[in-house]
Amino acid sequence: MDLEATVMELIINAGESKSLAMQALASAKKGEWEDVDGLLEESTAAAKRAHGVQTELIGLDEGEGKVPVNLVMVHAQDHIMTSMLARELVEELINIHRKLQS
């Protein structure tokens, strides 16, 4: 396995998930609900890809330190956790926009 490429895949998918969630929030502010739903679906798919890569890395490590931890790996973990939190908060904000606009 090319560890660097795998870590970059994690960063890219987590970033895409967060970006799509933020686009969904912008669409919610405009009341563009079809766009919101599609963007949230895409965000969820990207998050699942990122989580899949993370799970693969955890499986390779087997809790024994087999996967070297370096600054890029820490950065990737930061990206996925930030992305997950952003998506959760964006979904709550979108729900508020739906209620206010209906």
TrEMBL record:
It comes from the Bacteria. Binds 1 Mg(2+) ion per trimer. GO terms for molecular function: metal ion binding; transferase activity. The keyword Transferase applies. GO terms for biological process: phosphoenolpyruvate-dependent sugar phosphotransferase system. Its cofactor is Mg(2+). Mg(2+) binds at residue 78. The active site is at residue 75. SUPFAM superfamilies: Enzyme IIa from lactose specific PTS, IIa-lac. InterPro entries: PTS_IIA_lac/cel, PTS_IIA_lac/cel_sf. This is PTS lactose/cellobiose transporter subunit IIA. It comes from Vibrio ziniensis.
